[in-house]
Amino acid sequence: MGVFTRAVFVAVMSGLAGAAWAYEEVPVPEGGAIVGTVIFDGKVPKPKGYNLTTLPDPLYCGRVSDGQGWRILQPFDVGPAGEFRDVVVYLEGVEKGKPFPDHSVPQIQAKDCLFLPFTTVVRDNQSVTVVNMDPVMHDIQAYETSHLGARVLFNVPLPMNTRHPRNFKDRSEAALYHKHMAGAPMKQLVNLSKGRRIFVMQCGFHAYMESWGLAVQNPYFAKTDEQGRFTITDVPPGTYSLAVWHPYIRTVITQTVTVGPKQTVETRLVVPAPTGRLYANEVLDHPYNRYSVTDEVKKEIEPMVETQRH
Questions:
Q1: How far apart are CA 142 and CA 127, in angstroms?
Q2: Contact 228, 246 (CB under 8 A)
């Protein structure tokens, strides 16, 4: 786990840590709603860059790459008008209200050497399921943080479907293979230390595979859509702290909202762009010089699925 990952944990967790209580599910006949937009204000940070020749499975995983032998990971999904996508918005301090969504265990997929989704909302002491859809092996390593540093939640291999071909011989076999078939699902318990609410999952083989989770204490949360919009329904009348969470925003953005009986409250949350260098492997403005990627290697690593941009 990288130094910056631990730093992000410590910074964000200082705002999220707090006393937990047992949430009570009760009817909310006078419940209201909060609808709004999350806006990213400022320059979008540079993405991360990973040289595929230094990691396993460069031909298959290079189907998503920049055409120069690099895999790009952009943690910030920001639209042209600043709409901040795939961030979590949640209410603090709701002790009782609507039931948690009657959904199955949250699932994270390894697909095209990506963990999808990038952010997941979970309940503490409940499980997530991770499934490998790729014809290559992955290894899931999940961490939380504490005042003593990172703590491993689980570390298990993620098997591939046995019907996938193994050991691609060349680019034509690896890059042109498009089948996604689920391997054996790995169900893992998310059991965070007291007061901790964030975990990160990475692949032990492919460092650019990254997924973050937020453990919530009540069901009043939502993820922003392509327009940066969100909706939280059946909110008990009252005054609450509405928070925005993204794993690479170092401070928790909050706003006080008051919801009346059967009232719909419109809101707009603005997240200032973080400053400074966020990660050690930030994409550089000039050509990479840490590794030698020859033209022959570039021809082998061809972005057949997606050509990424820096």
A1: 12
A2: no
Q: Please report the DSSP string for the chain in residue order.
A: --HHHHHHHHHHHHHH-------EE---TT-EEEEEEEEEESPPPP-EEEEGGGSS-HHHHTTEE-SSSEEEE----B-TT-BB-S-EEEEE---EESPPP---S-EEEEETTEEESSEEEEETTEEEEEEE-SSS-EEEEEEEEETTEEEEEEEEEEPPPTTS--S--SHHHHHT---------EEEEE-PPTT--EEEEEESS-TT-EEEEEEESSS-EEE--TTSEEEEEEEPSEEEEEEEE-TT-SS-EEEEEEE-TT-EEEEEEEEEPP-S---TTBPPSSPP-SS---HHHHHHS--SSEE---
Least confident window among 13-17, 42-46, 170-174, 197-201: 13-17
Q: pLDDT value at position 26?
A: 95
Q: Which residue has the tokens 């047992």?
A: 22
| Whole-number pLDDT of residue 209 | 96
Tell me, what's the pLDDT at 290?
53
Mean pLDDT, range 71-93, rounded to an integer: 95
pLDDT reading at 107 higher than 60: yes
Residues making up the chain, counted from first to last = 310
Query: What local confidence, expressed as pLDDT, does residue 273 receive?
Result: 96
Handedness of CA 102, 157, 199, 197 (dihedral sign): positive
Cα–Cα distance between 159 and 133 in angstroms, integer? 9
The whole-number pLDDT of residue 302 equals 85
